[in-house]
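User: Design a sequence. Structure:
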């Protein structure tokens, strides 16, 4: 699932990644860019390409389990739950595919142009639709795709919902909290500027970022707890969601990675990298993994940002996923690199 879980925290619990030097176990290439659409589940790597193909590869990289042509560009990763792959399959459509062979089980037409990454919780698929200047959030039955409820946002936004403890959180021009059961609005927090902010939710706090600012809101009522903005007025923080683990929030900037205290937003450390950060961070107990627009994967120590290692990939690293000691990096030219400790 995008950012590892419905809370979108970016911290894969119970897993480790390589912290010493790494070697490339394998690399496979799609016909077009991977975008942000890389997911790993149950010894299978799922990827959607810019030319509209959903593929399932063995985690060993030696074979393709299946591939399915979709209706258009797939820019967001699927959510894989039990034996079903839920993915936006082009043209604003959300599809449910059998994890075993890619057979289509159902599809739902949002009537929009784009369907960002879905969240699947307790038999319900939560997904947005974007197009024609209006955004809509849908709750669908996971078994057959029938609509349970929808919530009108009133503007375009390329964000994915987070779902925690019976509440759906989404950040578009405002941040919203909705009852997961029926879509009732619980609170709204308006910003002077915000657009397409996928939230990360941890320990009763909703974290969002856009432009150069990161916010922390109380998950119960939406009040602002703190906000962070780099001192460098030229710094631009990438719009992808932050990662949250062990009371620390990790944020990717133009060419800097920041570690902030979760309770107050004060800076623990910041580290400059050689090229601008192009992926949201993935965090384990020992390392923060990010990809750069110049084609480099970085592993930084969570304690102080010290560089563990770097790996030069083929092009812009748009997706970094860490599972069972392996770092999977998806790139804009369609490559997937699997990196493990030497």
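Assistant: Done.
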């Amino acid at each position: 699932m995008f950012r590892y879980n419905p809370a979108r925290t970016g911290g894969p619990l119970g897993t480790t990644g390589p912290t010493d030097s790494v070697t490339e176990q394998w690399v496979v290439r799609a016909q077009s860019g991977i975008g942000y659409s890389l997911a790993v589940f149950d010894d299978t790597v799922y990827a959607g390409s810019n030319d509209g193909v959903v593929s399932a590869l063995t985690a060993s990289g030696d074979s393709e389990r299946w591939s399915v042509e979709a209706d258009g560009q797939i820019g967001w990763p699927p959510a894989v739950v039990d034996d079903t792959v839920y993915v936006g399959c082009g043209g604003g459509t959300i599809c449910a595919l059998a994890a075993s062979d890619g057979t289509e089980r159902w599809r739902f037409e949002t009537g929009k142009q784009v369907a960002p990454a879905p969240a699947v919780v307790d038999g319900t698929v939560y997904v947005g639709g974007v197009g024609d200047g209006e955004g809509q959030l849908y709750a669908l039955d996971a078994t057959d795709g029938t609509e349970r409820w929808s919530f009108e946002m009133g503007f375009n936004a390329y964000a994915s919902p987070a779902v925690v403890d019976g509440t759906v959180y989404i950040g578009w021009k405002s941040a919203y909290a909705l009852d997961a059961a029926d879509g009732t609005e619980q609170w709204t927090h308006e910003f002077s500027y915000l657009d397409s902010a996928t939230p990360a939710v941890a320990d009763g706090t909703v974290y969002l970022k856009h432009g150069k600012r990161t916010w922390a809101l109380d998950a119960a009522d939406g009040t602002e707890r703190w906000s962070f903005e780099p001192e460098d007025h030229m710094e631009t923080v990438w719009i992808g969601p932050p990662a949250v683990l062990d009371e620390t929030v990790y944020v990717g900037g133009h060419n800097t990675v920041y570690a902030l205290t979760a309770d107050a937003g004060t800076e623990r450390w910041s580290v400059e990298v050689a090229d601008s950060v192009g992926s949201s961070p993935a965090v384990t107990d020992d390392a923060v993994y990010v990809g750069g627009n110049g084609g480099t994967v970085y592993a930084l120590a969570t304690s102080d940002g010290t560089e563990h290692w770097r790996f030069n990939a083929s092009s812009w690293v748009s997706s970094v996923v860490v599972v069972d000691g392996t770092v999977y990096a998806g790139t804009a030219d369609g490559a997937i690199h699997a990196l493990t400790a030497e």
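The chain has a mean pLDDT of 89. The radius of gyration is 19 Å.
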